[in-house]
Every structure is written in structure tokens, then in C-alpha cells.
Amino acid sequence: MDEELEKTELERKERREKHLKAVGLIEDLIQGTLFKHTADTIAKPDFAMYSAGARVITKLTSPSYLPQTGSFLGKLAQVFGINTRKNGNPPAIAMDPDTHLGRCWAFPGSQGQLTIQLSRTINATDFTIEHVDQQVAIDLRSAPKNIEVYGFIHEPTDSVEDDLEEYNRFLLGRFEFDPKEHPIQTFSAISERQVKYVQLRVLSNHGHPDFTCIYRFRVHGKLNEED
């Protein structure tokens, strides 16, 4: 009798362990699905979004990279039906929520800049850099690495580099982006400053010799009371 009870209890314990294991697997699956669908949920307005009214200041933005037809980026563009042979993907691509593989703004080399007129005058608080997830990325070397962000109150001019104070250019942030940690990373501003124009400066990438890709750059902040 004792042996039967012991056997029954053992079977019950095994069933409970299997049940808990199955529940754990289901929870992992749910968490993975939730992560996939909520990874982009930053819950902060993006004042650098092109569709919301932000615009590229072309004269202070690096030229787009022109991929060769036989290069990886060129082949990828052909697969997705993107015509890059004349001008390359425009900088505004980096201000768009669509960040599918290959849909990025690339500039030549490892150093470049993107200057944006924000959709509203804000007190900048955070910046978000996005790259394609490493699970689908073929080469992460083109991701930006060392980054600086500058702000302007008034519209910058061609000679903005000559006198920073005269043109109200000031450092808003300096940080390092590692796409292996997470494809979407948000960094805090050094201090909250009123800005209407923002310049993203990439000082280095993760080792690609030909180009650097910006999938998306976002600017977060608080609306100016007078705007």
C-alpha cells in the first residue's frame, strides 16, 4: 500500500514538474513575442520625424553613400526595389519609422553628420539611435559607434564651424552606441536646452571601411511654452 502511494505521489510530482516546465516555455514564448512587438515602444514623441514636419538641413548634412551595383548594399537595395544608383538613400530615411533591413541612410566612411530642423522648438531631453536587429543584420560594422549631438536655437549657416557661440551651437550629448546590446537605444541629454535645430555627428562606426548606416535618429523633449 505504501509503495502504491509513493508511486502515485511520484507520478503526481512528475506531472507537476512537466506542467511547470510547459508553463515556463509558454511564458518565454510570450515574453519573446511581446519583446518583438514592443521593442519600439519608447513612449516618447519624436520631434525629428520627417512625417511630423521635421526637415533635413542639406547644406550641413553629409552626402549620401552611392553603393556600387555589385556591393552588398547595392544588391540589398535592388531586392527591396530601392533606386540608389543616382543619389543613394536620402538622409530623410533616417527620420522615418520604417527600419526594415537595408532601409537606412548611409554616408561614406566612418564620420558624417545629419542636421535637422525639428518639427517644433523643444527643450531636448533624450536622443534615440536605432539600427537593424543583430538577429537579421548581415554586417553590424556599419552601425554608428561614437556619437555627438549638437543643438542650435537659430538656423545654422554654412560658416557655423567658424564661431560656435555666434551661431548658438552647443553640445547636447556624447555617447557610444553598441547594436549588440539592443537595436534601439535612448541616451539622455547633458542638460535640457531649448533647440529648434539638431545636428547628429558620427565620429566612428564599428569597423566598416566604406560607409556608415543610420537606420533612425530620434529627438525627444518637452515642448517650449511659447511654441
What does this structure look like?
- There is one protein chain.
- This protein has 227 residues and is of the alpha+beta class.
- The protein has two domains: 1-29; 45-223, Galactose-binding domain-like (Jelly Rolls), CATH 2.60.120.260.
- It has two helices and eight strands.
- Strands 1, 3, 4, 5, 6 and 8 form a six-stranded antiparallel sheet that branches.
- The longest helix is centred in the N-terminal third of the chain and has 37 residues, at 2-38.
- The chain is elongated and about 90 Å long.
- The model is unreliable at 30-39 (pLDDT under 50).
- It is found in: Membrane.
- GO terms for molecular function: protein-membrane adaptor activity.
- It comes from Basidiobolus meristosporus CBS 931.73.
- It holds the Pfam family Sad1_UNC.
Order of helices and strands: HEHEEEEEEE
- The number of distinct structural domains comes to 2
> By CATH's scheme, which homologous superfamily of the largest domain applies?
Galactose-binding domain-like
Instruction: Measure the end-to-end span.
Output: 83 Å
Known CATH architecture of the largest domain: Sandwich
Domain SUN: 53-224
Keywords: Membrane, Transmembrane, Transmembrane helix
Pfam families: Sad1_UNC
Subcellular location: Membrane
Strand-helix topology:
Blueprint: H1 2-38, E1 55-56, H2 72-79, E2 105-108, E3 112-130, E4 146-152, E5 169-176, E6 184-202, E7 211-214, E8 216-223
Antiparallel strand pairs: 1-3, 2-7, 3-6, 3-8, 4-5, 4-6
